[in-house]
Amino acid sequence: MKTKWQQLDTDQRLAVKRILTSALLLLIGFLWPEKTSIKIGWFLAAYLVAGWPVLKAAGQNLVKGQLFDENFLMSLATLGLWPSSSGPKPLR
After folding, report:
1. What pLDDT sits at residue 92?
2. The whole model's pTM is what?
């Protein structure tokens, strides 16, 4: 009898690993004691781990001339959050 993990294909396993790694980095960022660039680095690392497939697809589509696809728009929306004051409290 196979476990749930063994039933997943390679892409699904990679997605689970990305989610868990990103969640761990995000947790470290929230628990980091002082507001420094290191704390922001934890959040940025979590964002890059979780969002890399979308950012990569957006970049590839930009090179092909597809400016307004869902990957580009999602990347623009999430990257636009970072400098805004509506981000998570540690980033304000």
Report:
1. 52
2. 0.76
- The tokens of 75 are what? 């990347």
What contacts 24+ positions apart, CB below 8 Å, involve 51-59?
51/75, 51/78, 52/18
Summarize pLDDT for 30-73 with one digit per residue, the tens.
Answer: 998 888 889 889 999 999 999 999 999 999 999 998 888 899 99
Cα–Cα distances in Å, from 58 out to 7, 40, 43, 55?
Answer: 30, 23, 21, 5
Exposure string over 47-77, b if 16+ CB within 10 A, otherwise e: bebbbeeebebbeebeeeeeeeeebbeebee
Q: Which helix (H) or strand (E) holds 70?
A: helix 70-81
Phi, psi of 9 (to 5 degrees): -85, 180
